[in-house]
């Protein structure tokens, strides 16, 4: 599958206004006598109208980052141990429970991976949309219903009036994800957290959903934090990319730059593990990254990617590579960062 | 929907017919009949008199003939005659039905309400001290036999404290009037309802706690939270309705179980109910009455099951009754 050149609306992120979301040095630990760090020194920001993609394997901590923003980490199991999350100028940690509820679904909305499981099976689609309208816009009754129809139209659902009275199990997968997006848009959020929104959908529907998100972004100036391991989707929608590995961000930069010239060996591995060109025409076989992501309590010393890395050296075992200060292109937390003309060969 | 109802009612007719035939054969296999009981009571009955009595009650016809006669009668609404009561069976059963119905309905409402409340509360405090204490109390309720609860409650609250009447459904010679009668019956029903409910409170508490804990891990609960719904809204608006589904199933079972199964409670508290009537009918070898009770009860059970199915469909739109 060949991809067209990604449309990159924001050419230069440096000239953008102040970020609407700033996550700095976020650390999430498990609770209990021996806390394991699930997320370590994670920092990123999102500017208005921008899409940042968090990319990485399962267990890298992508979803945790999003749940932490909304304050929805499971309270019995995890806690934010260090770091701050600012929404605009507001430190979210200082908000009361009530203020935090106004943020959830109000200024920041979230959509999830499995749209069937995420919609309440015993409530109609209309009820689930109008609930958000009641909470964040104070709309009730006919006004809420009318707005819900508008929202369903906005997410391109045919016959919106009829759909309001349907239950989620009657809708197709793509339709359900559109309903989820409609619910998320009900509070007119500034930021949408999209946690693997296309993973449970087939390729055609997935492309439709990504296209829809891009159109919405252009129409209503939404910022999106896109969490995914769907690299083609990232190329379609992301302005910037942050690659996560084992609870840390290992490479970040403008999407085009990262895709064209990945600097971290892990990013290079990820990109080589993805099909390019026609497989049938005898193209090179897919390269996989050997080994698996270590468990949070079994992370090696120094660089956590070291055991799987072809460039690992003695230094990597001793010293954890730090993220270099901001540059205009991409930057990677690696002692041996650098582009290689054929990064697939490294593996 | 109409199609479904028609099929269900047709099924019900078949079920009740099978119940009639099965019970008729079973009861006739039991040694002894009404005449034996009468002879035992009289003490000086000879074989001729017993034979003539059997002929008069129709007890000497062959089994298939009696069965066919019986079914024909049932179809015309005649459930036979209860000689000891000198009344048609249906009348005797219908006289006893209100007391049992009242007991069952009050007990189901009480136990579902208190049980679910306890369960939801325990689920909210899962694995904390409150939950542990509640679980222990619930376990005690679950493990205590109904007759023991009934006797203990009676000793404490009727005999010692004198708060509630000892026995019966009404006070003889009490005030007239609907309100006074209702209050009097209410006072008589408190202890029976409590003893009958305690066990079921435990069942509902355990059921709804487990169900609630399971529902709270569902993705749609996370969606509700991400939408900004308050904790109370999440529990009452999103989780409870899903968590109630197994409770509804259990409530249906409880109703059907209690209609014939409240014998102990009815006996201990001297309530003129159906369970007590069935118990007496067994010892009096009053088989027409026993059969009548079984038929009426199976009829009620079929209706209750149908209502539970309809309610279930109302609560869970994924269930579609089409067959």
Automatic annotation (TrEMBL), chain A:
> Recorded GO terms, molecular function?
ATP binding; ATP hydrolysis activity
Localization, per the record, is: Cell inner membrane
Native organism: Pseudooceanicola albus
Ranges of residues in domain ABC transporter: 21-271
GO CC terms: plasma membrane
Name this polypeptide is given: ATP-binding cassette domain-containing protein
Membrane topology note: Peripheral membrane protein
Identify the domain of life: Bacteria
BP GO terms, sorted: peptide transport; transmembrane transport
- Keyword terms: ATP-binding, Cell membrane, Membrane, Nucleotide-binding, Transport
| InterPro entries per record | AAA+_ATPase, ABC_Ni/Peptide_Import, ABC_transporter-like_ATP-bd, ABC_transporter-like_CS, Oligopep_ABC_C, P-loop_NTPase
Q: Which family does it belong to?
A: Belongs to the ABC transporter superfamily.
What segment(s) does the record annotate as region Disordered? 321-347
SMART domains per record: AAA
UniProtKB/TrEMBL annotation, chain B:
Q: Which UniProt keywords apply?
A: Cell membrane, Membrane, Transmembrane, Transmembrane helix, Transport
Where can this protein be found? Cell membrane
Its domain of life reads: Bacteria
**All copies of domain ABC transmembrane type-1, residue ranges:** 97-312
Location (main, coarse):
membrane
Q: Which PANTHER family match?
A: ABC TRANSPORTER PERMEASE PROTEIN, DIPEPTIDE TRANSPORT SYSTEM PERMEASE PROTEIN DPPB-RELATED
Quote the Gene3D superfamilies the UniProt record gives.
Answer: MetI-like
Q: What is this protein called?
A: ABC transporter permease subunit
- Ranges in a coiled coil: none
GO biological process entries:
transmembrane transport
Q: Which residues cross the membrane?
A: 12-30, 99-121, 133-157, 189-207, 289-313
User: Can you tell me which family this protein belongs to?
Assistant: Belongs to the binding-protein-dependent transport system permease family.
For membrane topology, the record states: Multi-pass membrane protein
Q: Does the keyword Transport apply?
A: yes
Give Gene Ontology CC terms.
plasma membrane
């Amino acid at each position: 599958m060949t991809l067209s050149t990604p449309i990159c609306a924001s050419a230069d992120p440096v000239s953008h206004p102040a970020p609407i979301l700033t996550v700095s040095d976020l650390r999430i630990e498990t609770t209990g006598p021996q806390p394991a760090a699930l997320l370590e020194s994670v920092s990123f920001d999102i500017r208005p109208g921008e899409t940042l993609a968090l990319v990485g394997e399962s267990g890298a901590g992508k979803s945790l980052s999003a749940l932490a923003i909304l304050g929805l980490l499971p309270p019995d199991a995890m806690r934010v141990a260090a770091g701050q999350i600012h929404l605009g100028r507001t430190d979210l940690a200082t908000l009361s429970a009530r203020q935090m509820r106004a943020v959830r679904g109000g200024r920041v909305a979230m959509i999830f991976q499995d749209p069937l499981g995420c919609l309440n099976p015993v409530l109609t689609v209309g009820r689930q949309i109008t609930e958000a309208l009641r909470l964040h816009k104070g709309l009730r009754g006919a006004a809420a219903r009318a707005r819900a129809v508008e929202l369903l139209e906005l997410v391109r659902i045919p016959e919106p009036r009829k759909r309001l009275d349907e239950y989620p199990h009657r809708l197709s997968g793509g339709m359900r994800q559109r309903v989820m997006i409609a619910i998320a848009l009900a509070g007119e959020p500034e930021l949408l957290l999209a946690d693997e929104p296309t993973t449970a959908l087939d390729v055609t529907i997935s492309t439709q959903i990504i296209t829809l998100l891009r159109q919405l972004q252009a129409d209503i100036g939404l910022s999106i934090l896109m969490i995914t391991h769907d690299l083609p989707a990232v190329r379609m929608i992301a302005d910037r990319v942050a690659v996560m590995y084992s609870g840390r961000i290992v490479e970040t930069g403008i999407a085009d730059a990262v895709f064209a010239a990945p600097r971290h060996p892990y990013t290079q591995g990820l990109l080589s593990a993805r099909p390019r060109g026609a497989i049938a025409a005898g193209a090179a076989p897919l390269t996989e990254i050997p080994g698996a992501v270590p468990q949070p309590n079994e992370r090696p010393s120094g660089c956590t990617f070291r055991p799987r890395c072809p460039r690992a050296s003695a230094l990597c075992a001793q010293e954890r590579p730090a993220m270099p200060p901001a540059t205009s292109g991409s930057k990677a937390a690696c002692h041996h960062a650098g582009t290689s003309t054929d990064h697939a060969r490294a593996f | 929907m109409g199609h479904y109802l028609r099929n269900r009612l047709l099924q019900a007719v078949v079920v009740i017919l099978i119940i009639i035939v099965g019970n008729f054969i079973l009861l006739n296999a039991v040694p002894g009949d009404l005449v034996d009981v009468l002879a035992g009571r009289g003490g000086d009955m000879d074989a001729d008199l017993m034979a003539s009595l059997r002929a008069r009650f129709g007890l000497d016809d062959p089994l298939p003939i009696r069965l066919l006669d019986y079914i024909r009668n049932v179809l015309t609404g005649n459930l036979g005659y209860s000689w000891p009561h000198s009344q048609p069976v249906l009348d005797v059963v219908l006289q006893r039905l209100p007391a049992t119905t009242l007991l069952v309905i009050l007990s189901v409402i009480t136990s579902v309400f208190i049980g679910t409340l306890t369960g939801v509360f325990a689920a909210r405090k899962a694995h904390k001290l409150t939950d542990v204490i509640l679980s222990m109390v619930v376990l005690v309720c679950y493990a205590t036999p109904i007759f023991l609860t009934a006797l203990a409650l009676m000793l404490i609250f009727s005999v010692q404290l004198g708060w509630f009447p000892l026995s019966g459904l009404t006070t003889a010679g009490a005030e007239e009037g609907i309100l006074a009668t209702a209050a009097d019956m209410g006072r008589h029903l408190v202890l029976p309802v409590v003893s009958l409910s305690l066990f079921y409170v435990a069942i509902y508490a355990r059921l709804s706690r487990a169900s609630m804990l399971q529902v709270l891990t569902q993705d749609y609960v996370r969606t509700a939270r991400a939408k900004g719904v308050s904790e109370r809204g999440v529990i009452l608006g999103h989780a409870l309705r899903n968590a109630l589904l197994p409770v509804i199933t259990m409530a249906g079972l409880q109703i059907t179980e209690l209609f014939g199964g409240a014998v102990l409670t009815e006996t201990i508290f001297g309530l003129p109910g159906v369970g007590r009537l069935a118990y007496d009918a067994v010892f009096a070898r009053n088989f027409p009455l026993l059969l009548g009770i079984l038929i009426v009860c199976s009829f009620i059970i079929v209706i209750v099951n149908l209502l539970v199915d309809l309610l279930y469909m109302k609560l869970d739109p994924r269930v579609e009754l089409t067959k």
